[in-house]
Amino acid sequence: MNKRTLLAFILALIASSSFAVTKKSYFNYNRPVVSDYLWGILSSQAANTASVKKYFDKAYSETGSDHIRINLALELIRSDEPVEGYNILNDLFDKGFDLGRSGIYLYLYEFKKGNKKRAETVLDSVLAGMLKDKEIITAAAVLNQKINDRLNLFSDNNEFKSMINSALENKYGRAYDLYFSMIKMQICSRADGNTEKISEIIASLEKDQPELPYLIYRYAFDEYIFNKKFDKAAEMLEKMTRITYGEPEYFADIAELYSEKGDFTKARNTLLDGIKEYPESSLLLQLAELYVKSGDVLKAKTVYNGLKKRFPEGTYLYQIMATVFSRYKMEAECLEAYKEGILKDPENAELLNNYSYQLAQNSKDLDKAAEYIEKALKNRPGSVTFLDTKAWIYYKSGKIEEAEKIMDGIFENADVLNDPSSEELLEHLKVIKKALNKAGEIDNIQINKTAIMISDIILKSSLILKAAL
Are 353 and 341 in contact (CB under 8 A)? Predict the structure, then answer.
């Protein structure tokens, strides 16, 4: 590196806000301080933590510049002395120094330590700075991370709605605005049954964009269906079909509304019309489920058999079949589907677990159930649902103490209370404890239903970000 290049490098560092040594203009710079500062940077490149501290400390003692301290903190965090770096960040934050994006390091550190309030205070400061500096997309991503990090802490719907309302006070760009709006719409629908809010949110979004993406109307359609507001669902369907005309989804959505209203004949005819145009589409799966729902199992099996011939190597079809039959309490057909699937793919852990559980539920062939769950656990030894299946097989086999031991182990981890399957897990634990006359041991265990609902909503809404609408 020649002298002119080195000088340009020094000037660039001094001019940079992230590497600022002093607030003064360049012509007033302190040569020894700049030298120490540069040696500190070069030492960091060589992973020499002792030299980094030595030169940055010298530069700081000469200037008192917090910009030097924050760079020292970041270098320490990346080194083998991270705690000292975090201590510096905490001290700077308490002094009111703007940490900028570096505050994210402190947020993650405090959150991991369990200092949730401190972590949120830091992150709120980072967000405020990003919004002030018009870093809109980054701010939206950070806010979304904050929401996801707090999922298990929400115990009240109103607290979550307050956070989402606060988020919607700012504009984050089209995708994130739609994302936060859909989260709000679903929480109002699912938690409060407030279908008026669905219409209000859609109308508000249409003011900025007269025709919204299909996915947004689909979310509203789903919520109207959930609340049995079929007339309102039909209004959304009209908007959806304008977008999907000439595609398989056009027929699928119309048939779904007919099915939900109990008009199976119109639903069937709509799907058959669609299948004529799109014989390779998933409309056949929808038709098979419609037949199961309406009690016509023979026709459902005819459709499924046709799909099995068309896709002889596929195993996911058997999981779909079993799930549909189980949903409508057709246990014999469910077990048969799992059995066929395992013959096709004997090492499929999901099929093995689900088949084992269904066998246990029906108290059938418990030895085979025990054999299959062990095979599944070899592939996924830490799976909570797989362990629950094993415990349930023990319970059904009369080995209640062994079942209790497994379930106690599952509930040692508090995070299981926020698992989507936690209600079923807790129900199994209650049954097992009751059988051992220990029902009182679990009186204080509470499922965080709010966190589970919010988690489902966010997972569904994240499709908006993935689709980059």
Answer: no
Rounded Cα distance between 388 and 425, Å, is: 7
What's 313-437's CATH class? mainly alpha
Q: How confident is the model at residue 152, as a pLDDT?
A: 74
Measured CA to CA in angstroms, residue 231 lies from 126, 199, 251, 294 at distances of 45, 12, 18, 22
> pTM for the complete prediction?
0.79
By C-alpha distance, which of 285, 248, 255 is closest to 270? 255
- For residue 199, what is the DSSP state? H
Terminus-to-terminus CA distance in the chain, angstroms?
47
**Element of type H or E holding 175:** helix 174-192
Q: How far apart are CA 32 and CA 43, in angstroms?
A: 16
Checking if the pLDDT of 40 tops 70, the result is no
Share of the chain above pLDDT 70, in %: 87
Cα 332 to Cα 334: distance, rounded to the nearest angstrom: 5
DSSP 8-state assignment for residue 170: S
Half-sphere exposure of 333 (CA within 13 A, CB side): 20
pLDDT in the model for residue 50: 65
104-133 confidence digits (pLDDT tens)? 889 989 988 889 889 989 988 988 888 888
Tokens coding 331? 């246990």
H or E element, residue 342: helix 331-344
**For the chain, what are the domain ranges?**
3-136, 313-437
266-299 in b/e form (b: 16+ CB < 10 A) is: ebbebbeebbeebeebebbbbbbbbbbbbeeeeb
Nearest to 357 by CA among 385, 317, 325: 385
Estimate the crossing angle of helix 195-208 against helix 214-226, to 10 degrees. Answer: 170
- What pLDDT is attached to residue 308? 93
Q: What is the dihedral of CA 138, 141, 146, 150, to 10 degrees?
A: 180
- Among 56, 30, 29, CA closest to 41: 56
Spatial distance between the Cα atoms of 74 and 88, rounded to a whole number of angstroms: 9
Produce one character per residue of 421-444: b if its CB has 16 or more CB atoms within 10 Å, e if not.
ebeebbebbeebbeeeeeeeebee
Q: Token digits for 147?
A: 């929401």
Distance CA 112, CA 140 (A): 22
- The CA–CA distances, whole Å, from 201 to 207, 294, 390 equal 10, 35, 46
